[in-house]
């Protein structure tokens, strides 16, 4: 391979895209299909780049493709270059109107179905030229794709380990509550201490959900043991609790949606009330930092506007349940 020092003219953005795609898919055929080019074209461009750099980036044979140790550094740097190029193009395209075009946002599953219905109409009304491309993914995936420039922002809990390269704006504080089967003895308590769940089968989400990490930490601190069953969604947890399989912890924002049919006994936890902080996050170097902070304010206002009517409906429903319970007691 050539030992001549490469110059910027020897490299192309397209070649860097090819390198990252092969590293992600570990296959030349899959990478070519992903980028909508022929495999010979992709292979030739990567071989040319390896020649210019004087480094073998990939080991390949008929069965597999591996990234070499030297290639790992090149792939990592290629990712950073592509993110910077994406930021440059985004800054130019949004210079006239930052709220025109497509905004890619990753949202964690324990937030998406409960927050988005309240905020997306408000965003559409405020920014009619803006299109939200929403993707539901777990926290590690949102953070990784944000750093790789595949997402512009994320909606997730700040309690996850995000790192110093990300900025944020808080959207709301979301307290945890206890969900119990109808008629459970602990339902007679106005508030519940975590220690009171020591003898219960406490159901939690599966690995990969940041809400599981927070709930598991609370249970461990209080000496509460987790049940064998792990759910992939809060909806599954609610249905299992409704069937009498145990108790669970829920974020408050999920209760109005998940408890419509289940009619669980929902009780707050004793102070200091554990909670999570939901925030809009983005990369520190993103040219969208200022517009995203403005967008966060719109999300906050939309949630405040939706909260009052919902709380009134919940209060009326609770009053009806109390009256029904009192009438039953008189009959007995």
Can you give keywords for this protein?
332 residues; alpha/beta; Arc Repressor Mutant, subunit A; D-Maltodextrin-Binding Protein, domain 2; 2 domains; nine-stranded mixed beta sheet; two-stranded antiparallel sheet; 10 helices; 11 strands; 48% helix; 20% strand; disordered C terminus
Radius of gyration: 25 Å
Strand residue content = 15-25%
Uncertain ranges: 327-332
Q: Please report the first level of CATH classification, the CATH class of the largest domain.
A: Alpha Beta
The CATH topology annotation of the largest domain reads as D-Maltodextrin-Binding Protein, domain 2
How many β-strand runs?
A: 11
Counting H and I runs of at least 4 residues, what is the number of helices? Answer: 10
- Give me the strand/helix succession: HHHEEHEHEHEEEHEHEHEEH
Q: Summarize the amount of helix as a percent range.
A: 40-55%
Known CATH architecture of the largest domain: 3-Layer(aba) Sandwich
Q: Report the major sheet.
A: 9 strands, mixed
Q: On the 0-100 scale, what is the average pLDDT?
A: 85
Description of the molecule:
There is one protein chain. It contains ten helices and eleven strands. By secondary structure, it is of the alpha/beta class. The chain folds into two domains: 8-92, Arc Repressor Mutant, subunit A; 99-332, D-Maltodextrin-Binding Protein, domain 2 (3-Layer(aba) Sandwich), CATH 3.40.190. Strands 3, 4, 5, 6, 7, 8, 9, 10 and 11 form a nine-stranded mixed β-sheet that branches. Strands 1-2 form a two-stranded antiparallel ribbon. The longest helix has 43 residues, at 289-331. The protein is elongated, with a radius of gyration of 25 Å. The relative contact order is 0.12. It holds the Pfam family LysR_substrate. Residues 310-321 have a biased composition (Basic and acidic residues). Keywords: Activator, DNA-binding, Transcription, Transcription regulation.
């Amino acid at each position: 391979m050539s030992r001549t020092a490469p110059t910027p003219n020897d490299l192309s953005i397209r070649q860097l895209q090819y390198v990252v795609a092969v590293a992600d898919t570990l296959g030349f055929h899959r990478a070519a299909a992903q980028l909508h080019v022929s495999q010979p074209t992709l292979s030739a461009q990567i071989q040319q780049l390896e020649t210019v750099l004087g480094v073998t980036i990939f080991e390949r044979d008929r069965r597999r493709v591996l990234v070499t140790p030297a290639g790992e550094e090149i792939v990592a740097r290629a990712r950073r270059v592509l993110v910077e190029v994406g930021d440059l193009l985004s800054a130019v395209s949004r210079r006239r109107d930052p709220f025109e075009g497509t905004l890619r946002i990753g949202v964690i599953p324990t937030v998406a179905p409960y927050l988005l219905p309240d905020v997306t109409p408000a965003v559409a009304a405020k920014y009619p030229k803006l299109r939200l491309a929403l993707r539901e993914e777990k926290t590690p995936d949102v953070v990784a794709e944000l750093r790789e420039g595949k997402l512009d922002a994320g909606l997730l809990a700040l309690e996850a380990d995000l790192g110093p390269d990300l900025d944020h704006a808080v959207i709301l504080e979301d307290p945890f509550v206890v969900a119990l089967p109808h008629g459970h003895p602990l339902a007679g308590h106005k508030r519940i201490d975590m220690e009171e769940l020591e003898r219960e089968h406490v159901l939690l989400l599966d690995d990969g959900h940041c809400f599981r990490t927070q709930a598991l930490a609370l249970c461990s601190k209080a000496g509460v043991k987790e049940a064998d069953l792990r759910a992939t969604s809060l909806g599954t947890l609610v249905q299992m609790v409704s069937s009498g399989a145990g108790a669970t912890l829920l974020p408050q924002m999920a209760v109005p949606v998940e408890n419509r049919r289940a009619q669980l006994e929902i009780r707050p936890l004793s102070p200091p009330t554990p909670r999570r902080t939901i925030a809009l996050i983005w990369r520190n170097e993103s040219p969208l930092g200022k517009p995203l902070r403005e967008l966060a304010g719109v999300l906050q206002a939309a949630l405040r506007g939706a909260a009052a009517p919902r709380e009134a409906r919940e209060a009326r429903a609770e009053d009806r349940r109390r009256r029904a319970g009192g009438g039953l007691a008189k009959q007995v």
